[in-house]
Specification:
By secondary structure, the chain is of the alpha/beta class. It contains 16 helices and 7 strands. The protein binds guanosine-5'-triphosphate and magnesium ion.
C-alpha cells in the first residue's frame, strides 16, 4: 500500500467564523447596492452637474447588457434637449507627440478661465486589447484633481464603430452635465482620426518637427482634416527646427483647396511641457468658432455629422445583425470553403448569403 503523503504544513482543525459581523447590516448594505437608481433620478442629477451620476450613466452606455442599453437610451433621450452647447475639440497625433501632456496644459488653461472640461478618448488599440488609456491619467495629474475637469478613459468594444457610437452618446451626456469644452483624444493610427473628425467641431493635429513626421501626415491626408496644426515640443534645441517645420506646414496647407468653412487652417508652435503657446491655441479655437458661427458652417457641420452618424449606425447594426445570425455563420463557413476550392465566386457566394 502506498504510503500516504503528509503535508509539510501542520493542519489545524477548522475554526468556525466568529459572529463579529452584523447580518442585518450586511443585508442592508446588499439591499442598498441592489437598489436601482431610476433613470429620472440619474438624469436630474446629471443636469445638476453631478459627476457620479454622469459616470454611472456612461457605464450604462458602455454596458453590453441589453437592459442597461435600454436605460442608456432613455437617459440619452432625456439629456438630448440639454446637449449641443459645448465646443467639441478633437486632438490627434502620433504616439509620444505629447497629446496627454498637451491636454493637461490646455485643460488647466481652460479651467483657469472658468470653463468645465471633459476629456474623452477613442483608443483603437483598446478595441483589440480591451484595455484603456487609463495610464494616461498620470500625465494629467493636475487635471485629474481639478473639480472642473472630467476625464473618462476610452470605452472598449469590438469595433471602432462601436466605440465611436459610445463616445458620441457620452458627448451628449457630458454636454447635459454642463461641460463647456469636450476634448476627444485619439492616437494617430488607423481610421480613428476620421472617426474623431466626424464628431467634433474643431480638429487639432499635434506634430513634431523633424523625424519625417511631416511627410507622413501629408501623405495620409490627415493634414487636410486639421483646423489647426500645433508643432509641439517647440522648446530647447528644438525651437529652430519647429520654426522651419511651421513654414513647411503653412506651405503644405496652401496646396489644399479652400475649405467650405472659409477657415484657413492655422499652424502654431507650442510646448505642452512648458505651457508655452497653449493659450494661443484656445484663441485659435475661439476664432474658428466665431468665423464658422457667423457663416453658419458650425451648425451645418453638426447637422451633417448627425446625418452621417444615422447612416453609420444603421450600417453597423445591419452588419452585426447579419453576421451574428447562426444560419449565416454556418453558411458563411461553407461558402468560404467553396471559395477556397475555387468552386464559387465571391459574388455568387455573397448573393447566396444575402438571400438566406
Ligand atoms: N520637451 C518636451 N517634451 C514633451 C512635450 N510634451 C510632451 N513631452 C514629453 O513627451 C513624452 C510623451 O508625451 P505624452 O503626453 O505621453 O504623449 P502622447 O502623445 O500622449 O503619447 P501616447 O499616449 O503614447 O500616444 C513625455 O515624456 C512628455 O514629457 C513638450 O512640449 N516638450
Ligand atoms: Mg497619451
Amino acid at each position: 500500500m502506498a504510503k500516504q503523503k503528509k503535508s509539510a504544513l501542520s493542519e489545524q482543525k477548522g475554526v468556525s467564523q466568529s459572529e463579529i459581523t452584523n447580518i442585518s447590516s450586511i443585508n442592508q448594505i446588499k439591499k442598498k447596492r441592489l437598489k436601482k437608481i431610476s433613470n429620472n433620478t440619474l438624469v436630474s442629477a446629471i443636469l445638476k452637474k453631478d459627476i457620479t451620476a454622469l459616470s454611472k450613466a456612461i457605464t450604462l452606455i458602455e454596458s453590453k447588457n441589453p437592459k442597461h442599453s435600454n436605460d442608456a437610451k432613455a437617459i440619452i433621450k432625456s439629456c438630448l434637449p440639454h446637449a449641443n452647447k459645448s465646443i467639441r475639440i478633437g486632438i490627434t497625433g502620433v504616439p509620444g507627440v505629447g497629446k496627454s501632456t498637451f491636454i493637461e496644459s490646455f485643460g488647466m488653461h481652460l479651467t483657469s478661465l472658468g470653463k468645465r472640461v471633459a476629456v474623452l478618448a477613442i483608443d483603437p488599440s483598446s478595441t483589440i486589447t480591451k484595455g484603456s488609456i487609463l495610464g494616461d491619467k498620470t500625465r494629467m495629474e493636475s487635471l485629474v484633481k481639478d473639480k472642473n475637469a472630467f476625464i473618462r478613459p476610452s470605452a472598449s468594444g469590438d469595433s471602432l464603430g462601436g466605440v465611436a457610437r459610445k463616445t458620441r452618446e457620452t458627448i451628449i451626456l457630458c454636454e447635459a452635465a454642463g461641460f463647456d469644452v469636450i476634448i476627444i483624444e485619439t492616437v494617430g493610427v488607423g481610421q480613428s482620426e476620421t472617426t474623431v473628425h466626424s464628431m467634433v467641431d474643431f480638429f487639432l493635429l499635434l506634430k513634431l518637427a523633424g523625424a519625417g513626421d511631416e511627410l507622413q501626415g501629408i501623405k495620409r491626408g490627415i493634414i487636410e482634416l486639421a483646423d489647426a496644426i500645433a508643432i509641439n515640443k517647440a522648446d530647447g534645441d528644438n525651437i529652430k527646427r519647429a520654426k522651419l517645420a511651421k513654414v513647411d506646414f503653412n506651405r503644405a496647407l496652401h496646396l489644399y483647396p479652400e475649405k467650405s468653412s472659409n477657415w484657413q487652417p492655422k499652424v502654431t508652435l507650442c510646448s505642452a511641457l512648458n505651457n508655452d503657446g497653449v493659450s494661443d491655441i484656445w484663441e485659435i479655437v475661439l476664432s474658428y468658432v466665431e468665423t464658422t458661427s457667423a457663416n453658419n458652417y458650425f451648425n451645418k457641420k453638426r447637422q451633417e455629422q448627425n446625418k452621417f452618424w444615422l447612416i453609420q449606425t444603421i450600417e453597423e447594426q445591419l452588419k452585426s445583425d447579419f453576421f451574428n445570425k447562426s444560419t449565416i455563420k454556418k453558411a458563411l463557413t461553407e461558402q468560404l470553403e467553396l471559395i477556397d476550392r475555387n468552386e464559387t465566386t465571391p459574388f455568387a457566394a455573397a448573393d447566396y448569403l444575402l438571400s438566406l
